[in-house]
């Protein structure tokens, strides 16, 4: 089967008549970045709280943390996206449900919340692993200095744990960025959605997804290089992070 290559397609007007296909892809990449940053912010904050709960000496907090992790980690992301977008508004009070469905860019907000909760469950395990890698003496020292348990986590344990698990946090950020493509299923025109729209309108499949692949690669490489700089700054001597030659 012959294929008609056309790399100039990116400079032709898209179906909306206001942008070229290249600008449509760039706007899709912007939606991807916004979704990833919003979702990972939720994941980092919520995941830290759940990770602390998972290592708490209080049994009921450990149970709540475990329940959250097992719930969001073991349901496929695509199923969760459908549940958040199609099912949750029907479970809310009628007025609130209608407001949510009519909210401008509701697909964006739904994707941010869904991805945030999904990756929060994974981040909780990352934070828990970092906390459990610390010696028990650090918690005891904090309590012995007169700090409360909350202050001990905030000022002693979490700062050390974050510095140890920077590589794992980087991996979660990369996964979150790539998982934004699932939001296509609820109508968010992020990068994958924009590439698919270009392919369906122009029939230039290879060009559309080659451009999307390149943009994903650029975004993820930027994250990797930025987080490597953070990793070097946050390296803790004696905790297994080797110095680059």
Description:
With 245 residues, the protein is mainly α. The protein has two domains: 37-181, MetI-like (MetI-like fold), CATH 1.10.3720.10; 189-234, no CATH class. 74% of the residues lie in helices and 0% in strands. The protein has ten helices and no strands. The protein starts with 20 loop residues before the first helix and ends in an 11-residue tail after the last helix. 32% of the residues are buried.
State the low-pLDDT regions, or none. none
Query: SSE string, helix = H, strand = E?
Result: HHHHHHHHHH
CATH fold-level label of the largest domain: MetI-like fold
Radius of gyration: 22 Å
**Large-scale geometry:** globular
- How many H/I helical runs? 10
What structural class do you assign from the helix and strand content?
Answer: mainly alpha
Estimated share of beta-strand residues: under 5%
Profile the largest sheet: none
* CATH homologous superfamily annotation of the largest domain: MetI-like
Topology:
Blueprint: H1 21-54, H2 59-73, H3 77-91, H4 94-102, H5 106-132, H6 136-144, H7 149-164, H8 166-179, H9 191-202, H10 205-234
Helix pairs in contact: 1-2, 1-5, 1-8, 1-9, 1-10, 2-5, 3-4, 3-5, 5-7, 5-8, 6-7, 8-10, 9-10
Compact summary:
This protein is mostly helical and 245 residues long. It has helices spanning 21-54, 59-73, 77-91, 94-102, 106-132, 136-144, 149-164, 166-179, 191-202, 205-234.
């Amino acid at each position: 089967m012959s294929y008609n290559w056309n790399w100039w397609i990116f400079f032709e007007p898209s179906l909306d008549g206001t942008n070229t296909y290249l600008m449509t892809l760039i706007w899709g990449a912007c939606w991807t970045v916004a979704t990833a940053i919003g979702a990972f912010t939720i994941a980092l904050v919520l995941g830290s709280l759940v990770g602390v709960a998972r290592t708490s000496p209080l049994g009921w907090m450990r149970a709540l943390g475990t329940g959250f992790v097992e719930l969001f980690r073991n349901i496929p992301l695509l199923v969760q996206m459908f549940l958040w977008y199609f099912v949750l508004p029907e479970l809310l009070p009628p007025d609130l449900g209608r407001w949510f469905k009519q909210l401008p860019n509701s697909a964006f907000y739904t994707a941010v919340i869904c991805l945030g909760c999904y990756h929060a469950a994974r981040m909780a395990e990352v934070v828990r692993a970092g906390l459990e890698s610390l010696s028990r003496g650090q918690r005891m020292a904090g309590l012995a200095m007169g700090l409360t348990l909350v202050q001990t986590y905030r000022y002693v344990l979490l700062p050390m744990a974050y510095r140890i698990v920077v590589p794992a946090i980087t991996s979660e950020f990369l996964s979150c960025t790539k998982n934004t493509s699932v939001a296509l299923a609820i109508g968010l025109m992020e990068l994958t959605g924009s590439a698919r729209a270009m392919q369906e309108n122009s029939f230039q499949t290879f060009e559309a997804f080659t451009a999307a692949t390149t943009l994903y690669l650029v975004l993820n490489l930027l994250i990797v290089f930025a987080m490597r700089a953070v990793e070097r700054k946050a390296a803790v001597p004696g905790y297994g992070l080797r110095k680059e030659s």
